[in-house]
Design goal:
The complex is a heterodimer of chains A (690) and B (230). Chain A has helices spanning 3-11, 16-51, 59-63, 140-144, 260-269, 306-315, 336-342, 384-435, 451-499, 505-540, 548-562, 583-599, 656-666; strands spanning 74-78, 100-101, 110-116, 119-127, 153-161, 169-178, 183-185, 188-190, 195-197, 202-208, 211-219, 228-233, 242-245, 255-257, 274-280, 285-290, 322-323, 347-352, 359-369, 372-382, 544-547, 567-572, 578-581, 606-613, 617-625, 670-676, 679-687. With 690 residues, chain A is α+β, with helices and mostly antiparallel strands. In chain B, a hairpin with a 2-residue loop joins β8 and β9 (155-157). The longest helix of chain B has 19 residues, at 109-127. Chain B is globular. The termini of chain B are far apart. The chains are: A alpha+beta (690), B alpha/beta (230). The A-B interface holds A 482, 485-486, 489-490, 492-494, 496-497, 500, 522, 525-526, 529-530, 532-534, 536-537, 540, 542, 551-552, 554-559, 583-584, 587-588 and B 11, 13-14, 17-18, 20-21, 24, 84-89, 104-106, 108-110, 190, 192-195, 197-198, 201, 219-223.
Chain lengths: 690, 230
């Protein structure tokens, strides 16, 4: 993995920024929620306090000492318009869910009670396999059914009250709806004393596939505060009917209706996006006001595109709230937090609106009238304000951190490119410095104050030392030969003088041997200084243009004389190869290469000298059969005093290839050696123009 | 008359060895180990030949300095450099200062004796009237074998002893290739290939200075050189 990729990976760390920002926004959001909840609690308490001055609007006050069993109570749903009395439910302004099953009925008999202005409406959907109509009035059947009436019937049970004492029982009154035939019917008002037709009540009976439906309208003044429902089911006109009642006991419980006073008070407190519900002690809804429609549905403001919504949901709304329950269609609020409030504790809960998907905070606060808890106030508020705030923050955060991340990534990428460029320059310069045989210790970034500068400087210092060492090696031979020449002259001149002295035969032999050794030393010394001579010649060479091919022809002929046990062949593409340079030096270089080739080949081998002329350069190669180049010293092949020859006389100094390279480089060319099939080739490239 | 040779050499062993060899040949020898004593002695009397080492004690180029001073005093004094310094640059410098020969210490004593004898012979021949000497003519080339002088198209070419011997060896049999060993033997010296190459170059340059069209010395690659007769 290169430096740029590494730094790009590091730049991913900037993604921590949006994460931290989200954490902050989440904190902010929860703080805002907390604040909103507290504010809502305060509002709820204020409303509760103001409602406490209307204890009589709550049932508990009206009920007096006897507590109603809410299970036996009926709830008068507020209707916004009066339904037609036609036996159909569809013109009621209520949902089907408002239909309450009649307790105790083994079949799905459902009913609902509605209140519109001064009229009470009743709708009953009775499941009855066998609808039995009652006998017409005046027939004996009425007399037969003393306790009730023959046939199926629905009865509304109420009471006459003792004047001045609401709720007290003076007499039980029943309005019986029994049909002789489907259609409109007139109920009968039955008391302990009499049974009369009540024409102020209108009703409509309609048969259904599995029973019948009854819809009725009763003026409010005909009913007392209490109301109960009884469904009588007769199997035959003669047999007594089975009575199923909405209440236990003889007397029904109080009918719960909306309190217009509380409603108007509550409506005054409603703010946008707030729903206010006032319930009595049993949870019956006494007032409800809301303004949730203002921003209901649709997307929360500020969330424009899909990915923002996804990000928002993923980051902010944890989504673990319960679904927001709409006001209970039965009219009685049974949710936990409301129950807790009815137990006297202020309660709160978070919900999620199904319609908009947004969080809703709900608080419930008990209403105390004196020491008596009369009910509770429930406030629900959406979190649109928070939502839009956090949305804007989130959107800004996303944009800013996205830009920041891109900037950081771009900056790091650029920085990494710059760094790696410097490092690559340094490394290629270091390689080049080693490639050239004269070490060049000057490297890029040498003046930089950073670590790359340090690296460059230490490279330079290492290269400088290497260069000094190489220089030392290079000049070692000529220095050595120079220093040894004087003592050797002493030896040889002494020996020569000695020859003129009278010597015994024995001494003369030793002298001759000593002279022989001195002569050999002389040869070695001249070989050692040859390299510096060649360098001198190259420096002073007066280059001329000559025909290399012609020169090679005579030279190769001379080689055949010099090494009769080898055969030499010259292969040249062109008959004339003009070259600008020093012919003596190039022939000398060839001498060294051929000498090397002879040294590594065996008697009878053919040494091939190949000359090719290209547009800008001449390639001269010498190939000999023999062992391949050793791996070990391949790179030092052309260095001074490196010899691979296992010469039995031990006289080889390893300067030949060094000189060959000096000549090649001196002519602006290059030399290399490589293995060929069963042999070794030395190849010299020389530019045609020097 | 006994020839007097002065040797200025800081290495005592070499000095004494050469002195012994010269004395054996019948020369009178004076020995000096530094420039100043030699100059002091030469102030009163000049020898016939001075053999100088370039390196003299602490003076790295004291020999050159000595040569310059002597040459300014006596134009016809024979001066030979005998030194361990074998670089082309030093040889050219020494000869340019007016030395008659520049020899490296590789030279054997017999070779050295032959050279010194040849040098004295030439000096003697120079003093004889011209015309009585033995001459060799090859086209435009005219060699005076006794005086060891060369003329090309009637102009004198200033060659050193070594160079004269090489030209002499080549021109004696024009068209015959002389290999390096033969040239070395002719020049009475043990020279390496590169030194021969340098000498040939210097010879060509000297002829070219007189005649820009000179091409009588031909290189036969891998073998040697030959004189081309027109």
């Amino acid at each position: 993995m290169n430096l740029r990729r590494q730094l790009l990976l590091v730049s991913l760390l900037t993604l921590v920024l949006p994460w931290a920002g989200c954490q902050f926004i989440r904190e902010t959001e929860s703080a805002l929620r907390e604040g909103q909840q507290q504010m809502l609690s305060g509002t709820a308490q204020a409303i509760a306090d103001s409602l406490a001055q209307f204890p009589d609007q709550f049932d508990v006050a009206r009920r007096g000492k006897t507590a109603d069993d809410p299970e036996n109570q009926l709830y008068g749903h507020p209707l916004t318009s009066a339904p037609l009395i036609d036996g159909y439910f569809d013109d009621w302004t209520l949902s089907e869910n408002a239909l309450t099953p009649l307790p105790g009925a083994n079949q799905a008999t459902r009913f609902v009670v509605g209140v519109h202005r001064q009229a009470v409406f009743l709708y009953v959907d009775v499941h009855d396999d066998d609808v039995v109509y009652s006998m017409p009035v005046g027939t004996g059947a009425i007399e037969a059914g003393v306790d009730g009436h023959a046939g199926d019937a629905v009865e509304l049970i109420t009471i006459d009250e003792v004047p001045g004492d609401a709720g007290s029982v003076a007499a039980v009154v029943a309005y019986a709806f029994a049909a002789e035939a489907p259609g409109r019917l007139i109920p009968r008002r039955r008391t302990a004393r009499e049974t009369v037709e009540e024409t102020r009540v209108s009703a409509h009976w309609q048969d259904t596939a599995n029973g019948y439906r009854l819809e009725a309208r009763v003026p409010r003044q005909l009913l007392g505060t209490r109301l109960g429902l009884v469904v009588a089911d007769a199997d035959t006109p003669e047999s007594p009917a089975t009575r199923i009642s909405s209440f236990d006991g003889e007397v029904p419980e109080r009918l719960v209706t909306r309190s217009p006073l509380l409603q108007s008070v509550a409506a005054g407190y409603v703010q946008p996006d707030v729903r206010l519900i006032v319930v009595d002690n049993a949870g019956w809804r006494l007032a409800q006001a809301e303004d949730l429609s203002s921003s209901g549905g649709g997307d929360p403001p500020g969330i424009a595109s899909g990915w923002m919504r996804v990000a928002y949901n993923a980051l902010l709304e944890s989504g673990n709230e319960a679904e927001l329950a709409e006001p209970d269609p039965s009219g009685r609020e049974q949710q936990d937090y409301i129950r807790r409030a009815l137990d006297g504790q202020p309660a709160k809960a978070w919900f999620r609106s199904i319609r908009s998907g947004r969080a809703v905070v709900a608080v419930a606060h008990p209403v105390w009238s004196g020491n008596v808890q009369t009910g509770a106030v429930v406030l629900q508020q959406g979190t649109d304000a928070i939502l839009s705030l956090t949305n804007r923050a989130l959107a800004r955060l996303m944009n800013v951190t996205l830009i920041a991340t891109l900037l950081v990534a771009a900056a790091l990428l650029g920085y990494a490119s710059w760094l790696s460029l410097r490092i690559r320059r340094l490394s290629s310069a270091a390689e080049r410095a080693l490639d050239d045989k004269r070490v060049q210790p000057d490297l890029p970034s040498a003046r930089a104050a950073d670590e790359i500068g340090d690296l460059s400087r230490s490279f330079s210092s290492v290269l400088r030392q290497l260069g000094e060492y190489n220089e030392y090696l290079r000049t070692l031979a000529s220095k050595l030969s120079h220093e040894m020449r004087t003592p050797l002259t002493i030896v040889s001149s002494s020996l020569e003088n000695l020859e003129h002295e009278p010597l015994t035969q024995e001494s003369a032999r030793y002298t001759a041997r000593a002279k022989d050794g001195a002569a050999r030393l002389h040869k070695i010394l001249s070989a050692m200084s040859e390299a510096s001579k060649v360098e001198e010649l190259i420096e002073n060479a007066a280059p001329e243009t000559f025909d290399l091919h012609a020169a090679l022809e005579s030279t190769v002929a001379a080689y055949a004389d010099a090494w009769p046990e080898r055969s030499f062949s010259l292969v040249a593409g062109d008959s004339s190869v003009p070259l600008h340079g020093s012919p003596e030096l190039i022939i000398q270089m060839l001498d060294k290469l051929v000498d090397n080739a002879v040294g590594f080949s065996a008697a009878g081998d053919e040494i091939l000298i190949h000359l090719t002329s290209k547009s800008h350069e001449v390639v001269l190669s010498v190939t000999n059969p023999g062992p391949p180049l050793p791996e070990r010293m391949r790179s030092q092949l052309f260095d001074s005093m490196v010899s691979l020859r296992a010469n039995e006389t031990g006289k080889h100094l390893g300067l030949g290839l060094f000189i060959a390279r000096l000549v090649a480089i001196g002519h602006g060319g290059s030399i290399r050696a490589f293995d060929v099939d069963g042999g070794v080739t030395f190849e010299v490239h020389l530019p045609t123009g020097m | 008359m006994t020839k007097r040779i002065a040797i200025v050499e800081d290495e005592a062993a070499i000095r004494e060895n050469y002195a012994a060899a010269f004395r054996r040949e019948g020369y009178a020898v004076d020995l000096y180990e530094a420039r100043q004593p030699a100059m002091d002695a030469f102030a009163s009397r000049l020898p016939d030949l001075v053999v100088i080492d370039v390196n003299l004690r602490d003076e790295v180029e004291g020999g050159f300095e000595l040569c310059r001073e002597l040459r300014s005093r006596a134009a016809d004094l024979a001066i030979i450099f005998l030194t361990a310094r074998d670089s082309e640059f030093d040889a050219v410098s020494g000869l340019r200062l007016g030395a008659d020969d520049y020899l490296t210490k590789d030279i054997s004593i017999p070779h050295l004796m032959a050279r010194v004898a040849a040098l004295f012979r030439r000096m003697e021949a120079m003093q004889k009237p011209q015309g009585k000497t033995s001459r060799m003519t090859r086209g435009d080339l005219e060699l005076d074998v006794d005086r060891m002088t060369v003329r090309w198209r009637d102009q004198s070419v200033g060659l050193t002893l070594t160079e004269f011997w090489i030209v002499h060896s080549l021109a004696r049999y024009p068209g015959h290739v002389r290999n390096r060993q033969q040239l070395m033997d002719a020049a009475q010296a043990v020279l390496d290939d590169n030194t021969i190459t340098s000498h040939i170059k210097r010879i060509r340059r000297k002829f070219l200075a007189i005649d820009p069209g000179f091409d009588a010395v031909e290189t036969v690659y891998g073998m040697g050189y030959r004189w081309l007769a027109k």
